[in-house]
Amino acid sequence: MTSSRLQGNCWGKAVASWPAVARRIRVPSGFLLAALYLWLAKPDSRSLTLGSVFIILGLALRALASGHLNKNEQLATTGPYAFTRNPLYLGSVIMALGFAIVARSFWIALILIIVFVGIYLPVIRAEENYLAERFPEFLDYARQVPRFVPKLRRSSSPRGSFSCNLYWKHREYNAALGSAAILAVMIVKLLWAGR
To answer: What is the pTM of this model?
Structure first.
């Protein structure tokens, strides 16, 4: 095998395995991102107020979605899943927008975009491939419901009810606790800057 074919083959394997790598580094990269965020953010009272609205909306969407998600047991098509196939990720993007507004930093906004494109998009695609293999009805669902940007009308899927047990099982409250902690640090940072 020639050197260029070997390099091309290695590159192809690296690209093919990136979604698996992205899935593994998603949480640890979040901690690194939080540290960078705390260092680079320069909140003011207006950015803190406006950004908090988006953060709360994102948290609410994630909470609602987690109460309709029975992972690996059945395809989630009710609640927010009737409008978008990825309401958890959409909630995360809305939260990220809120945190970018709070921070008032070009670098944080750029990092958040890079993380979404480099980590979350490949994970979303890999998860959808898995769902297509596991649930035969996924392809029909995918034809009716957009991947990310929600449609305004609900799909033809039956109405489901929110389950508090699923919310607690998925530990979605950790997102709220982490967001509250970061916002508390931003308030302290704002107060410290104004002393």
So the answer is: 0.83
On whether the CB atoms of residues 93 and 116 are closer than 8 A, the answer is: yes
Task: Enumerate domains of the chain plus CATH numbers.
Answer: 19-193 (1.20.120)
Instruction: Report how far residue 16's alpha carbon sits from residue 69's, in angstroms, rounded to the nearest whole number.
Output: 27
Please name the residues in contact with 171: beta carbons below 8 A apart, sequence gap of 6 or more: none
DSSP states of 91-140 as a string? HHHHHHHHHHHHHT-HHHHHHHHHHIIIIIHHHHHHHHHHHHHH-TTHHH
Each residue's pLDDT, cut to its tens digit, for the chain (195 residues) gives: 444 444 444 444 444 587 777 777 766 777 788 888 989 999 999 999 999 999 999 999 999 999 999 988 899 999 999 999 999 999 999 999 999 999 999 999 999 999 888 888 988 998 999 999 999 999 999 999 999 999 887 666 667 788 899 999 989 999 999 999 999 999 999 998 874
Cα(43)–Cα(54) distance, rounded to whole angstroms?
Answer: 15
Beta carbons within 8 Å of 5's beta carbon, 6+ residues apart: none
